[in-house]
C-alpha cells in the first residue's frame, strides 16, 4: 500500500468511527473482508494452523490474531496494542433538558477533554442503543445521526469581557448542546426509535431501555497544510494507532503468531471488563495456550508495542518540552520513556524497535516529559503489569491532543505501519 492510498484509507476509517462501538465495527468489517474469522467468547474455539481470527467484547474492544503455527510457546506473540476511546461529551441517562425556550442534552465529560474546543462546533450523536422489541427480545443496535443536530454556542465577548484572558468552562451549566427550540415537540426516546428504524429497518422497536451515546464533531478528517503534510481530525488519539495496527496485522509476514488488541476505556483508566486493566487479553491468550506453562513460556518470548499518540514540540509553546526530547511531526514515531513506569519502555524493547526502523529506513524520536511536569500514561504499563509481557510505548507526534480536532503528520502513520508490519515477522527479539 502506497503512502497516499494509506492516508485516504485512514481518513475514511476516522470518519466512519465516531465512537468506540463504531471503531470496533469498522475494524470488524475490514477484518472480515480480509479473510478473518469471527470468534465468540461464549462458544468453543477451534483454531487452525494458518488461520486468522478476531473476537470482540462489549462491541467496543477487539482482539485479532494470526496463527501461522501452534508452537506459540517457542516463538511467542508479536503484539500491537491501542485503544478505541477518545475524550468526548457523553449523554446522561435522563438526557433531555428544557431550559429557557430550548431543548438541550445533559452531558458529562468523558476523559480529559479540552472543553473549550467543543464550543461552536457542528455536533452529531452516535453510539449504542438497547431496546425491547414487540416480540419481547432485548436488542442493541449502533446508531449515528451523521448530520449536525446540535451545537454548544459560545458566550459573546460583550457578555464576558475577560474571555481572552482565559476562562473556565463549567461542564454542568455551559456544555449542554442545543437541539432545537421548545416550539418543536421532542420526545428523546421516540427520536432514538426513529433513528434505529431508519438505520436498521424491521428492528421492531417497542421501547427504548437504555443508551450509550456520545456527541462528535461532524467536520470530516482532512489533509491540511501547504503541502498536505498534516492530518487534521477528531479522535486521532487513538484511532490513528488502531488503524496503523490493523493494517500492520493485515500485512504481517506471518513468521510468528501476531496479535492486535484495541481496548476501550483507556481515557478513564482502563479498569473495565473490556479495558486493558481487565481480563480480555489474558482470557484470549490463555484460550490459545494449552497449558499454564505454555502460557508463561509464550509471554516471555513475546513483545508488545503499545501505540498511543505522543506530544509533538509545539512552536508556540516550546517551553513545555525538554529540549533534548522534543519530537517533531513527520520525523518518525516517538519512543516514550519514563523512569517512574508511566511508560513501559525499557532499553531492550526500545532497541528492537530502533533496529527494525533502521532496517526499514525510518527515523525514530524519543520523548521524556519535563522533570517538573506530570507524565501521562498508556495501556503499555497496564498490559505489561497484568500479563508480564516485555513492552514498548510508542506514538506518533501530535498537536492538540484531547482537543475535539487534533493534528498529526501525514508521513508518520505510514512509516509506523511499515515498521510494525516488519515487527510482526521478527523471529528473534533479544538473544539470550
From TrEMBL:
<dbReference type="GO" id="GO:0004177">
    <property type="term" value="F:aminopeptidase activity"/>
</dbReference>
<keyword id="KW-0645">Protease</keyword>
<dbReference type="GO" id="GO:0008237">
    <property type="term" value="F:metallopeptidase activity"/>
</dbReference>
<dbReference type="InterPro" id="IPR023358">
    <property type="entry name" value="Peptidase_M18_dom2"/>
</dbReference>
<dbReference type="GO" id="GO:0006508">
    <property type="term" value="P:proteolysis"/>
</dbReference>
<dbReference type="InterPro" id="IPR001948">
    <property type="entry name" value="Peptidase_M18"/>
</dbReference>
<dbReference type="GO" id="GO:0008270">
    <property type="term" value="F:zinc ion binding"/>
</dbReference>
<dbReference type="Pfam" id="PF02127">
    <property type="entry name" value="Peptidase_M18"/>
</dbReference>
<keyword id="KW-0378">Hydrolase</keyword>
<keyword id="KW-0482">Metalloprotease</keyword>
<dbReference type="GO" id="GO:0005737">
    <property type="term" value="C:cytoplasm"/>
</dbReference>
<keyword id="KW-0031">Aminopeptidase</keyword>
<keyword id="KW-0479">Metal-binding</keyword>
<comment type="similarity">
    <text>Belongs to the peptidase M18 family.</text>
</comment>
<keyword id="KW-0862">Zinc</keyword>
<protein>
    <recommendedName>
        <fullName>M18 family aminopeptidase</fullName>
        <ecNumber>3.4.11.-</ecNumber>
    </recommendedName>
</protein>
